[in-house]
Amino acid sequence: MVYAIRIHETGGPEVMKWEEVEVAAPGAGEIRIRHTAVGLNYIDTYFRSGLYPSPSGMPLILGNEGAGEVVAAGEGVTNLSVGDRVAYAGPIGSYAEERVIAADRVVKIPDGIDDKTAAAMMLKGMTAQYLLRQTFQVGPGTTLLFHAAAGGVGLIAGQWAAHLGATVIGTVGSDEKAELAKANGYAHVINYRTENFVERVAEITKGRGCDVVYDSVGKDTYPGSLDCLKPLGLWATFGQSSGPITDFNLGILSQKGSLFTTRPTLFSYIATPEALASTAGDLFDVVAKGIVKIQIHQEYKLQDAAQAHTDLQARKTSGTTVLLP
């Protein structure tokens, strides 16, 4: 038996319980992992609260990201061996000391990248990769706005986008977070608590607007995000930390300049083993080269995951957080 964080009903952090669970032997095409580090992500709160439905009913082990060591391999697994270090983002179930997972949903961790770093960057880093390299091809001449610039995805995206030659604008909620964003690739940082971000973007871009706005905030930044775009610009809304956007009217896109919008998810971009390997490989490459530095700003014991959720939702955290079994 091992321990895991489970919920038996949806709700606030108080529904998270540290419980003994049984982990089966891996079946065909599966491996068993002993976690050495687990990533904390905002999407975890969506499953806990019920905003996103449980994929497997109740009770549910939370968590979408982890790293560790292969301790057993099922029939037909030829690309991994006991002792290999691996990491993954999804499927749900990482808030556990050990788990079973499909072998084609994990990737080997390259030498030179430690387990904590791998666990901290898989979901956030691959999210930054698909946003910057697939959803919109960021490059020299691109002007972009990234909300929550001091968050886990934001800090990775700022460094990566600056390396690609973009003019990178970010929003944050405090002066402390503004300094953090400036140190991670953001040429312009807007404190949305003291400044109107739509007006500031207009000033920064001399009225031209941005090519793309990356928005994980949701309700609080809508429809302002659309007003930051140039005609034919793209609004990529990939989260809703302030609450969901309701009653979205497609007509507003034409009114504001024939805009494009998309609601992407990482799991669509890594749906096949080939896509997962390519996306993770691109991330590992920029991290190994020092282009993107993964900064772990908070660590909690896995059994204290409820406190981590409380702090995350209170916006008391910045950058990346890991949970340690």
From TrEMBL:
Domain Enoyl reductase (ER): 11-323
The keyword NADP is annotated on this UniProt entry: yes
Oxidoreductase among keywords: yes
Any one annotated GO CC term: cytosol
Any GO molecular function: quinone reductase (NADPH) activity
UniProt xrefs under CDD domains: QOR2 (cd05286)
Protein name: Quinone oxidoreductase
Species lineage: Bacteria, Pseudomonadati, Pseudomonadota, Alphaproteobacteria, Hyphomicrobiales
